[in-house]
Amino acid sequence: MEQITKIFTNVKDFLSIHLFEIGSTSITLWTLAYFIFLAWLLFFLTARLKKWVIYSLLSKSKIDIGVRLAVGTIVRYAFLILGLIIAMQTVGINLSTLAILAGALGVGIGFGLQNITNNFVSGIIILFERPIKVGDRIQVGDVNGDVINISMRSTTVVTNDNISVIVPNSEFISSTVVNWSHTDRNVRFNIPVGVSYKEDPEIVKKILLEVAEAEEGVLKKPIPDVLFDEYGNSSLNFKLRVWTSSYITTPGVLKSRLYFEIFKNFRVHNIEIPFPQRDIHIKNTDFTVNSK
Asked: Are 87 and 43 in contact (CB under 8 A)?
């Protein structure tokens, strides 16, 4: 019994080792360990609370998932701030001292946190307004890909090459964003086609529509159509306009498949695909060189 009492006494003495002071509060090893435990427990419980708010409390309502995510995130951060304040009071830290310290630090690092704050606020705006959402096909700047995750600071976009690009949320608020699937995943592509001036436009139109209707990746409704676009320098230019939902992430593949079939059908029907031609006239001039 005396041995156990001695062990507890040694542990108590060890945990009572003075580390530093915050104002008039003495921070010991026990104070630090107790605060770390409370903080870990707080982060764990607020994460569970966020999931409960999103997937249980608001799941039966008609509120959009993006708004539910924003509400859950705000609720978690509110409880985190409140819980940390209570935890600091529990371990005996004087909050008035921390307030003075935070004010002094805020002046020094405020400018450095501008971008972080900007991205944080932008993340809240994205979650509420939903200009983009998970699963959308978007283009912002030079980044083109599918949105797989939206966090409070950044958005993860995966390109066709399976490369994850982390885009700061402020880019989606301050820059022009192209959302290919904002309302639905039906997108129309314009495929330019040029033929020789000697060809009949009606025959060309018929062939192009047959190719489009035979392509399984092209939607039957809205139906494909062909526009006589212009009289080019060396060709009659048409636009084959097709709708698709399966090739929204790989428009180049659909374009390639259509071009293969168009070339094949043009060759069968002897439709000539012209190439730019230029006539070059070389003028021969005799030069007389006088030498002394």
From this structure: no
144 is in which domain, residue-wise? 131-179
Q: How many residues does the chain have?
A: 292
Q: Report d(CA 82, CA 265) in Å as an integer.
A: 71
Name the residue among 121, 128, 122 with its Cα closest to residue 67: 128
Assess whether pLDDT exceeds 70 at residue 289.
no
Q: What's the pTM value of the predicted model, to 2 decimals?
A: 0.57
In 196-262 the beta strands, taken as DSSP E runs, fall at: 225-231, 236-244
Which residues are bridge partners to 168 per DSSP? 154
Q: What are the tens digits of pLDDT across the range 255-267?
A: 999 999 999 999 9
Q: Give the Cα separation of 167 and 76 in Å (integer).
A: 24
- Per-residue tokens: 174: 């301050």
The per-residue DSSP string of 103-128 comes to: HHHHHHHTGGGHHHHHHHHHHHHHHH
Total number of domains in the chain: 3
Asked if 67 and 54 count as a contact pair (C-beta separation under 8 A), the reply is no
Position of tokens 């599918």? 146
Q: What are phi and psi of 186, to 5 degrees?
A: -90, 120
| Residue 159: its H or E element | none
275 domain-assigned: no
Q: How far is the C-alpha of 5 from the C-alpha of 72, rounded, in Å?
A: 48
